[in-house]
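Q: What does the assembled structure look like for these inputs?
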Amino acid sequence: MVSIADLKRISSYEWEIPVSYRADMRVPVRIFASETLLKDVTRDKSLEQAVNVCALPGLVGSVKVMPDMHQGYGFPIGGVAATRYPEGVISPGGIGYDINCGVRLLGSRISYQEGKSYLEELATALNQFCPSGVGIGGHHRLTSRDVEDVCRKGSRWAKENGFATDQDLRRTEDGGQLQGADPRFLSPRALKRGMGQVGSLGAGNHFIEIDLVSKVFDQKAARAMGLYEGDLALQIHCGSRGLGHQVCSDYVKSLQSAVIKYGIELPDRELVCAPMDSPEGEAYLAAMACAANYAFANRQVLSHYAREAFESVLAGRVKDWHLHLVYDVAHNIGKIETHQIDGNSMEVCVHRKGATRAFGPGLEELPSEYKKIGQPVLVPGSMGTSSWVLRGTSEAMARSFGSSCHGAGRVMSRTQAKKTIRGEDLLKALKKDGITIRAGSMAGLAEEAPAAYKDVDEVVETVTRAGITAKVAQLKPLVVIKG
Amino acid sequence: MNDTLAGFEELSHTADLEIKVWGDDMASLFLAAADGLFHLSGIEDYEEGFSAVKETISLDAMDYEGLLILFLEELLYRLTEDYMLFSIEKLSISTNFSLKAKLRGTQIKSYQRDIKAVTYHRLNIRETDHGYEVNIVFDI
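A:
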């Protein structure tokens, strides 16, 4: 186990595990964490997992770990690793089974005063319009050919079918359509699993939440995003559903032989990988882009349903019930990006496993309205606690491959959470705090209890003090829909 | 498989689910792992009898770990896609890492937990004094 004594202090919020820690490390690990958060992470295997990642061929710079890190499988959650493109490797396990799991935030001009008496009705309507829960699919069943279309086009498919506006596409990472998607690299099972799930939330830690913009820290940035103190906003957290899970399973399996073929030695089989310029690497990149696009389309269709739910409850009752997309970010993905490495501009594949892209001002990938302020970074809290809207900085480009944290991060296992917390008690406590919950199962609710997570405010404090993101606004939950 | 020589227990994992599985031979290890998977999925409310559907499956892999993943993934896929729960009537595993199983399935109405995948994370089938054991991490 890595202990605090093994770490080199870079600053109060940045630490290093040097390459001398273990013989197979090609690069060091850089950890963004306060001293308090560091103590949490030395309790599980997340740092050990970060050291394992350092064995991947073609890594550049260092492997970064965000302050919301916790133990995963293969990569730690909160891990960011960049490999030189195209000769470096891509690792499906470094992106995860829920490819392009992500978050989007929609803002509104509905004031809390106007909306508060309709929150119960909105909770019921969101629950009805947006399918959620274990094994629950979307409203429509697609043909296999339709699924291929969704995979190629992502949010553009949603627009062609009346579920999106031009602004929605512009305000989604990569315009909601990752290039290079090729459905020929999907297995029949992946395609079949995609047929019934577009526009469905799923279960686990996925949610839809109505929030109050409780505090604005950066007026200029908040105005650019259309966020105003005292107004309502909506978050959607979900991913690529069964199609994405199948893609990852298929490729973690097929790459088991690729590592032998390319002579790659790894400390954990879940880290299997292939050079991006190999047939195996190219195939995974094309399949991953399909799953990423499926996820963009999924969140977009859910946004459409949420807009319908708001209209059904609020039309004629409030002045303006519309929900505008602030931004949509992916937090489980591999992206080919250009970064400055040791003073040289270099194309790399940035693996983000439970980490959010946080591009600073001026980058051409950002829509014009965010070019001056930097990319909106969305950090959902645990159920019942704050969520945060941050913005990317130039520091992030220099120090974390343009990345920041993705949430609160777990500290308690699900088994322990269920033992110590009863879903019914939690429901009562949240109700007392003025939070309305619609949940598929009480046991599932207990597993996602706030006590099972780190303090999101401290996580956000760490990434802002480290300089890799800046605060824009804090959100307080009012209604939570969980599958 | 109610043999005390085979079984599983749930271990603590920060974000996902982990079970330790043991069996006195490879086949009983695989059967206990299947029991563990169905337990974690939280299957309730199914018709007893397992007579409705008879199937056979044949799987091949590079090693026992790969074969275990294929086997569990097969059961998981049929569970989540077709709502089929299987009772494994006969299971044979050969030393060249191929598996043959006779299954009887029954339709289930619901399950309580979506398991995204069976992972290779630290997957290593170990020989013990009493047979074999393995830890399996499931992504949820």
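Chain B touches chain A through 33 residues (CB under 8 Å).
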